[in-house]
Specification:
By secondary structure, the chain is α/β, with parallel strands linked by helices. The chain contains ten helices and 14 strands. The protein has a six-stranded mixed beta sheet with strand order 2-1-3-5-6-4, with helices on both faces. It has a six-stranded parallel beta sheet with strand order 11-10-9-12-13-14, sandwiched between helices. A two-stranded antiparallel ribbon has the order 7-8. Strand 5 (87-89) and strand 6 (93-95) form a beta hairpin.
Length: 270
């Protein structure tokens, strides 16, 4: 039997923890497969190459998620509405597992951190008011997941376009002070200890999600500052692992892989 090929397409990809996560998943599941990070600048050529190689599936990261959506044979669910793809199956159908990654990360708070207000609908997490910081592709996934949230972004035009597309509304930065959920979808904190917002201005019962991860522990300055203040925190590695599990479920045709979270997070930190 031929070993199955899975890859990650992006630029850059050297920093990604996804290869460690998927290698451990395949080991635990007894799947004969390899997952390789591939730095690509021509995503169309990469798609053609993966078709020729008979790839079993692949992930797509920045800056190729929009291009991937245009290159897929069809789009499923959230991918079609968001206009961005981060997971492609063997039939070259595009999916967006960034949404599942965020929702599952929020749903799986440790019991001591859970709040009854965290859950308003089955599979829809919405702390009200919720604010998404940023207006890029990761923000589009977050806004789709958190229906009816506010968007805070320096570029007003881009934020307004996102709000129109996905039924959100644009808010001033002051909205962060009243937010019960803040999701950082900017790249601030990826390369240094910069903070995308003033944590001291947040309410004491706020939950902070940072989609960025950095350093050996995956902790950005925002994550460290929020934890120091005693806020509920979801770090970027938590979201990444849940996103990876959602991708595995699509590729392997399974719906029962959430129990892999703890060993896969350990792999991401190894």
């Amino acid at each position: 039997m031929t070993r199955a090929l899975y890859v990650l397409l992006g630029d850059p990809v050297a920093h990604s923890r996804s290869p460690k996560i998927h290698a451990r998943a395949f080991q635990l599941l007894g799947v004969d497969a390899v997952y390789a990070p591939c730095r690509v600048t021509d995503v169309a050529a990469a798609f053609a190459g993966l078709r020729a190689l008979g790839a079993a599936g692949f992930n797509v990261t920045v800056p190729h998620k929009e291009a991937a959506a245009r290159l897929c044979s069809k789009l499923e669910g959230a991918a079609a509405q968001i206009g961005a793809v981060n997971c492609v199956d063997a039939a070259f159908t595009g999916h967006n597992t960034d949404v599942a990654g965020l929702l599952r990360a929020l749903e799986n708070f440790p019991a001591r951190q859970r709040s009854p207000a965290l859950f308003k609908e089955v599979n829809i997490v919405h702390l009200d008011p919720a604010v998404v910081l940023g207006a890029g592709l990761s923000a589009r996934a977050a806004v789709f997941a958190l229906r009816g949230c506010s968007i805070v972004n320096l570029g007003k035009d881009r934020a307004e376009a996102l709000a129109r597309d996905l039924g959100a509304h644009v808010a001033r930065p002051e909205a962060l002070r009243e937010a019960r959920l803040v999701v950082n979808c900017t790249t601030v904190g990826l390369a240094d200890e910069a903070l995308p917002l003033d944590v001291s201005a947040l309410r004491s019962d706020a939950t902070v999600v940072d989609l960025v991860y950095r350093g050996a522990r995956g902790e950005t300055a925002l994550v460290k500052a929020a934890r120091a203040r005693g806020l509920r925190v979801v770090d970027g590695l938590t979201v990444l692992v849940h996103q990876a599990i959602a991708s595995l479920e699509i590729w392997l045709g399974r719906s029962d892989l959430r129990s892999l979270y703890e060993p896969l997070r350990e792999a991401a930190l190894a």
